[in-house]
Amino acid sequence: MAEESDQERTEAPSQQRLEKAREEGQVPQSRELATFVVLMVGGGALWMMASGLGQAMSRIVRGGMQFDPAVGRDSAYVMAQLSDQFTQAALALAPFLGLVMLAALASPLLVRGWLFSTKALVPNFKRLNPLTGFKRMFSTQGLVELVKSLAKVGLLGIVAVWLIWSNVDAIFALGLESPARAIQHMGALLGKIFLLASGAMIFIVVLDLPYQLWSYYNKLKMTKEELRQEAKESEGDPHIKARVRAQQREMARRRMMAEIPTADVVVTNPTHYAVALKYTEGKMGAPRVVAKGADAVAAKIREIAAGHQVPLLEAPPLARALFRHTELGDEIPATLYAAVAEVLAYVFQLRHFRQAGGVHPEAPTALPVPPELDPLQSGMGASA
Hints:
Elements: H1 2-7, H2 15-23, H3 31-65, H4 70-73, H5 75-106, H6 109-112, H7 130-137, H8 140-166, H9 168-173, H10 179-199, H11 202-219, H12 224-235, H13 238-259, E1 265-268, E2 273-278, E3 288-294, H14 296-307, E4 312-314, H15 316-325, H16 337-356
Parallel strand pairs: 1-4
Antiparallel strand pairs: 1-2, 2-3
Main location: membrane
Membrane topology: Multi-pass membrane protein
Keywords: Bacterial flagellum biogenesis, Bacterial flagellum protein export, Cell membrane, Cell projection, Cilium, Flagellum, Membrane, Protein transport, Transmembrane, Transmembrane helix, Transport
């Protein structure tokens, strides 16, 4: 049962799945909404521009029906007249066609926003498969489209017949008017009928838009296994990440161990902690931590330091404070300057003794370490 549930598409699509679908041109879309917007804009524009369009077309028709003797003498004059009339008609219709084109381009933005995907332009030859076509025809989507088409035809037919019947007197009255006024009134009447008939499609849009959104997200639903696989790909396999982190820690540890021979001193606890310090006058503002570790790592630090004759100093409070309050590569806190200064003074005296002999310097014992920096004294539970 668990395996079956893992293969069922019961999970909502992830953001990554939605973004991938969008890149491939798969977005929610409602053709009914686009058709409704285009028809409403076209009907409204026709209604408002009917008077101007009627006058312009009337002038063009009247000019085209006038006989000019020059037509019989020059064939080029005929073509010039036709070209001029065509230009006038195009200019008259340009605002109307421009609004309709703008509506056609803007209507998809109401649902999916701006999208341009070249993947959607790649030909898909699977659509040429007759079996696939039959499956689409008899699928749930095909049935829904059939019902919508029948509903549109029936609704628009009923509304259009009712509107024409309601305005039948105005239609017959056009024959009693002058041609110019008849053309204007006919444009306004057609725009009104067209606009009201198109407005009836709002009922189809209200039903279609939620269905298209539901159908889109339902197609993109994922199985639990797909979600797990996607999480692995985006976040990485936990086992691989753990192995990478282990390798990174090992590399950092090796770099740290390589810095120990260059250290000036290693402060110890004496067995639990070890912190290696280095100070180069003129290049560093304060002594810097080049290595630190606890237990086994501390033992390795002491071993490497002894092998390279780096001085070891047992100073438990200072070792604990440095281990707790510094990271690799950090300069020591300003509150520990005095304590570390005494340590470095001892180290420099020790170097002079090794080179020139004399009296062996005494290791400092009561270093001025503020109690709040010592985990043992501040109650942070560090081991002594």
